[in-house]
Amino acid sequence: MGDERTVSGTTRDSGLPPVITCREPGTFAWGVLAERHPALIEQVRDAFPYGPGPHRALDDLRHEIIHGVVEPPGAASPDRGFWLDQGREYFGRPWFDAPFLWAESYFYRRLLQAVGYFDEGPWQGIDPFAPFKRAELRGDTVDEELRSLDGLAALPAGERAAALLQASLWGNRADLGFRSSADEPSLGEPDHSLVADDTGELWSLLPAGGRATVAVIADNTGRELIPDLILIDHLLEHRHADRVVLYVKPRPYYVSDAMTADVVDCLRRLSGAPGEAGVIGRRVWEAMGAGRVDVRTHAFFCAPFPYELMPEDLRAELAAATMTILKGDLNYRRLVGDRLWPPTTPFADVTAYFPGPVAALRTLKSDVVVGLDVPTLERLETSGRAWRTSGTHALVQVRAGRGGPLSAARRAG
Questions:
Q1: What is the mean pLDDT of residues 407-411?
Q2: What pLDDT sits at residue 172?
Q3: In this structure, are residues 118 and 252 in contact, taking their beta carbons and an 8 Å threshold?
Q4: What is the DSSP string of 75-106?
Q5: Mean pLDDT within 4-30
Q6: 354 touches 399 (CB < 8 A)
Q7: CA 319/CA 329 separation, integer angstroms
């Protein structure tokens, strides 16, 4: 299936940089596995009055990650066959040897198993991250952000579009998983000079009156999804799109990733707000009822694979879109491949496989980045800041055509 990975994180397909693993202490990926995930287990443990069984399972998972080896899913797991097949290289080996993308995905799958999400019983289907999501939605910061919409209402359409795109982009900083450890510093001040900015090309592909269908693959709920919904409203109201397909996760994933229930919670928060926010919320609610905003999901969105390996049914859906907008850091890693790419690798080349025009709106919170020009890279590397992982930098990257030859080499590898 695409690239053939070894447990060491190297690849047998020629010409590609290595897949990122969690092996090297002090790296971002190592810190996620060694520090963030154990801290998140504790937060989930304390967020619900789970009984002794889930408590033991969560404690065992934490011990397994730090001191043990990767264990297969439980015998009664509905997707046991899938994970046995996809994890055969990693089971029985330290978690830190597995590719970072696979380890993160499997961690969240195992956490759901530990709290009984899949089992018949009182905790079946209960989102273990719901308390964190709801607390963020109730926060004063959301009120302030919604009030700011009143000041945008009178702006010319072009200025309003630019402001709403920026809000959607920087809303990606509001990642509960990024703040899962009390030992981690808070997010630094954002650098609003984007490391790559294809904003003009994005709007040129979505001219007003163009009868476009836009696919938006969401990332986080709450303070990111609300700006996404507001941007979707603008696309429809100003006829940059006739229809928007909003893709969300089919189950809880990466702490704050959006599911259908989260879309509804965010729309209720918007609709119940005074002023322009309430008008927008009610408009999006009505657009969903009319089919102009279509919320969809797919099991692939919780799979440990790059988008290059998306199944044919999802590929066909995205091929039918005028443009696909992917939000956030995880979607970016899956879009370009979670590898140690040289940062100047062309974005169009690594996304050439994608079935149609694609745009990435991403705040940088992991090591992967492509598509930078040399002067920008030199400035960033000499800045003394952890620009790849601190959430202080962002990008808008667009590939309008079919890209270059690199993806063909990847598929042939």
A1: 43
A2: 77
A3: no
A4: TT-TTHHHHHHHTTTTTTS-GGGSBHHHHHHH
A5: 71
A6: yes
A7: 22
